[in-house]
Write a structure and sequence with these properties.
Blueprint lengths: L2 H8 L8 H10 L13 E7 L2 E8 L7 H13 L5 E9 L13 E5 L56 E8 L7 H14 L4 E5 L7 H4 L8 E3 L2 E3 L1 E3 L2 E5 L1 H4 L10 H13 L6 E7 L6 H9 L4 E6 L3 H16 L4 E6 L4 E2 L6 E2 L6 H9 L3 E4 L4 H8 L4 H4 L4 H14 L12
């Protein structure tokens, strides 16, 4: 199988990268200071998500051009959706590299190679040559020279993600597992923050199980398109958008693989005409998968709120969510213990169906605040199903949501006024 056939086999229409454009870059690139085409030197191509790995044959005389080859390709491929390029070089000792065919005597360079200490090594900005043959002894591990870093583009970090021009703060409402009331908590906190005087929007990122449209009473409605951008729907004065608004009905399954789901999230965030917002609440899917990682690398997040029940199983999964946010530098604003207690509507007996003290243990373990406890109450469910959540219906749980929203609002950074504006 040729490298081009191999490249085609790893792509699918659901991926974020642009297959045709990547092929054009690889096929049309001409090596510096020669008339040789890169496509005749490629022996292997592998794509994993938005990371492209290629192996090419080069001649010793081209050693000084390897850095330029990598940088040229990385810049061109970035426009095609590739965020990281790993280039492995097989350097020919004798003969000509042609048609991508390997030669018996070759040495390899890799963007992750360790520095080479031999004085005979050619000077370049690339990591030095290592033997790529299977029979070669394992290379000795050495410390990486900070002045000679590997040729690769690191995955974007949260601190490097630019701020949305119209959104001051993005708050994630997350849970380690489904069924803990995350979406109900999202809509009620959004409405509570709005009651506190903030301009609030809601983005339903739970691609596979969008329930926000039902809870906010606008299921079945479809957003308008303006200049190739979605116009968010209005729900009780909030700008709202969900994948559920685009599928047309309640019965259409969103059977997408990870790359397409993450692409949909980015499209909903970036290609929507959000108004000026103090807070955008994002209802996250449960777990710690592709959507969470993509969001951490590409959407500027102020903080995350973890929703859990006191049950041990829910706490175990919530712990994984907190660990993930810590690793991607997203601050955890606090924990909400949902379904904390149940009061019988007939006799008034109070019972902790899912256990006690779970939220306290989680808050103490990670040194984060317990934002509040919410009851297991039939009114919460009935009002959410009716499209009029607790904060609007002013049921017995409304006060609890308002108290949590006040604690979250206190943690939001104060908006800095643009000194260049005159109004």
């Amino acid at each position: 199988m040729s490298w081009l056939s191999s490249l085609k086999s790893v792509f699918s229409p659901s991926q974020e990268v642009q297959e045709d454009e990547i092929q054009k870059v690889l096929q049309n690139y001409i090596l510096p200071n020669s008339d040789n085409a890169l496509k005749d030197r490629i022996t292997q191509v592998n794509v994993q998500g938005q990371v492209l790995q290629i192996t090419i044959n080069t001649m010793p005389s081209e050693a000084d051009d390897l850095q330029k080859i990598h940088d040229d390709l990385a810049d061109a491929l970035e426009k095609c959706g590739i965020t990281e390029l790993n280039m492995h070089v097989i350097q020919q000792k004798t003969g000509h590299a042609a048609g991508g065919c390997g030669h018996e005597h070759a040495e390899g360079e890799s963007c992750s190679s360790q520095p080479k200490t031999e004085s005979s090594a050619p000077k370049s900005n690339l990591p030095p040559v290592v033997d790529a043959s299977a029979a070669a002894p394992a290379a000795k591990k050495e410390e990486v020279d900070p002045n000679n870093p590997p040729i690769q583009k690191a995955a974007p970090q949260q601190r490097d993600v630019p701020k949305h021009p119209r959104i001051q703060n993005v708050i994630l409402v997350s849970s380690g597992k489904g069924g803990v009331g995350k979406s109900t908590t999202t809509v009620n906190l959004a409405l509570a923050l709005q009651k506190l005087g903030l301009k609030v929007g809601v983005l339903d990122a739970d691609i596979y199980g969008p329930s926000i449209p039902t809870m906010l009473g606008n299921a079945g409605r479809t957003p308008m398109i303006e200049a190739e951008h979605f116009v968010p729907l209005d729900a009780y004065g909030m700008a709202v958008l969900s994948i559920g608004h685009l599928t047309g009905d309640h019965n259409t399954p969103v059977a997408w693989r990870g790359p397409k789901a993450t692409g949909a999230l980015m499209q909903l965030f970036n290609q929507t005409l959000w108004p000026e917002l103090d807070v955008l609440m994002i209802d996250m899917p449960p777990g710690t998968g592709d959507i969470q990682l993509t969001l951490a690398q590409r959407i500027p997040v102020t903080g995350a709120v973890i929703v859990t029940t006191p049950q041990n199983v829910a706490l175990m999964d919530a712990t994984k969510g907190i660990e993930l946010f810590n690793r991607v530098q997203i601050p955890v604003m606090g924990v909400i213990e949902n379904m904390s207690t149940h009061i019988c509507s007939n006799c008034g007996h109070e019972e902790q169906i899912f256990g006690t003290g779970g939220g306290d243990k989680l808050a103490e373990q990670y040194h984060i605040p317990l934002l509040g406890r919410l009851p297991l109450n039939v009114q919460i469910r009935e009002n959410a199903d009716a499209g009029k959540p607790s904060v609007l219906a002013e049921d017995s749980a409304a006060e609890g949501y308002m108290a949590i929203a006040e604690r979250i609002a206190e943690k939001l950074p104060k908006a800095e006024k643009d000194q260049s504006r005159i109004f």
